[in-house]
Amino acid sequence: RQKNSGRNGHCVFNEKFGREAARQLEVKEVISEALKNDWFELHFQPIVDLKSRSTIGFEGLLRLVHPGKGILPPLEYIRAAEQTGGILEIGDLVLELGLQALERLHSKPEWQSTYVALNFSAAQFLPDLPANLAQKLSAHSIDPDHLVLEITETTLMQNNMGLASLIEDIRNLGCAFALDDFGTGFSSLSYMNRFPVDTVKIDSSFISGLDETAGSERANKTHALIEAIVGLSKRLELNVIAEGIENEEQLRCLIEMGVETGQGFLFGKAEPLDTVLSGHTARQPEIMSLPDMKLSNT
Ligand code: C2E
Ligand code: MG
Ligand code: MG
Ligand code: MG
Known about the structure:
This protein is of the alpha/beta class. The protein is 42% helix and 18% strand. The protein has eleven helices and nine strands. The structure holds ligand C2E and magnesium ion (MG) (3 copies). One magnesium ion is lined by residues 181, 203-204, 243. Residues 24-284 form the EAL domain.
């Protein structure tokens, strides 16, 4: 990342550290201001059935709508929040906003069986998470199988002793788990045994790799990798979602490789719930069906 290196690309440690720390402090202040002033919003990106292009669910993505600076992208302040502990408060807010959205969606006949997937950070997996989820789901009268928790390989790697049993407890409530950004972390296959998930989300870097000239070495490798992930997932009875689909050619390739579900700018960006509910952008399915997100409940 260029912005962390000094003049002429030379990295001057003290300078970098100083700027990084200053930036962190600034981000930290913005986060607390945002929490105080309700600047955080959850926007919703459609997750679609690739063949019919109908929306089967939504991923909730955090947005900090700053009155002066506009919409700030989440990656930077989420990392800062993870380091300062602010992620717990943000996580609670995201859960609350996600469940409110589900409640509103479910009140519309056309969205009655849709689900919402929310991103969870490692720090949120505390002993009281299952009870907290159960309580909030019931307060909003949401059936747990309409909530998906997205976690990354990095979260699994943090090797939190209690993580496997927390995942198990939450799956026993009826919520499903999706392994986000799959293929970009360490992708240790043993995680797939230790941490049962329901869905694998192929990272967008693989999907953009499909743009390479057909027959080129990179294109062939990308195809092989996606096919391997799809094959493995099918054998393990996991759903597959392709992330970051931007064009028709990528879509065609993915369908050909047996991927059934995806999301990306080709279908829609993350938008405020009101926009989704107004029905102008997200396509609504003709026949609603929730894919069987769960492997088993036992
Ligand atoms: P993610 O969970 O992998 O989310 C997908 C990201 O890809 C989103 O970026 C989304 O806007 C973007 N995206 C979707 N379709 C396309 C496409 O076709 N092309 C391109 N170029 N990008 C696409 P976003 O919203 O900036 O989020 C970035 C990351 O921030 C997320 O990655 C997730 O790791 C994290 N994040 C977002 N919201 C939350 C949250 O509520 N809690 C936590 N803990 N993390 C969050
Ligand atoms: Mg995600
Ligand atoms: Mg992702
Ligand atoms: Mg990603």
